[in-house]
Amino acid sequence: MIELTYFGHSTFLMGVNGKKILFDPFISPNSLAKEVAIDDLRPDYLLVSHGHEDHVADVERIAKNSGAMLVSNFEIVSWFQEKGIRNAHPLNHGGAVNFDFGRVKYVNAIHSSTMPDGASGGNPGGFVVESDAGTFYYAGDTALTYDMKLIADSFAIDFAVLPIGDNFTMGIEDAVKAADFVGTETIVGMHYDTFPYITIDKEAARQIARDAGKELIVLQLGESITL
User: Boundaries of each Metallo-beta-lactamase domain copy (predicted)?
Assistant: First the structure.
């Protein structure tokens, strides 16, 4: 089983085989997450999907406080290495690596990726995390793509963390299709409500998922669940 704690936007802390994995930390600039004690977070790993500020804003701060290993694409890792982050592992699309909690594969996403200072963030991606505690897909910011079907060919996905906010990413209708493509019935929603452009009707989204035979989990900020 995998424990998830939601810290707003696309930021999740996952407990996998005794290790803590923090995805796309955007906490201190997020007014919805102002109660989160960011300096108390001590992840073992930081997984970053792409370079936009709403996914990397707190990477440097958390990495230096915790000593967590940064895992992302080559361009993002290189950018943070210039800021003094030395504990890092670069990946690129289609590549995978074994860590002490399980195996991480960097997979395609359709989006854009620019670092906060305008430098290239490389190509955006998502992650498949495979372990004996469970296997999940963290999509990052993406449109619906047929490449997602390749995930179902190689992995038994227990749940998928998918953007549902529309406008900049998939909305719930495409997220339901994405869940079909990767072969799961369980969607954990992300990338919604943080900004006016991505404000959604959460109950309507849940109903769309139910009508498609899926479960949409929309967590409250700070809420933890086990899947």
Answer: 8-191
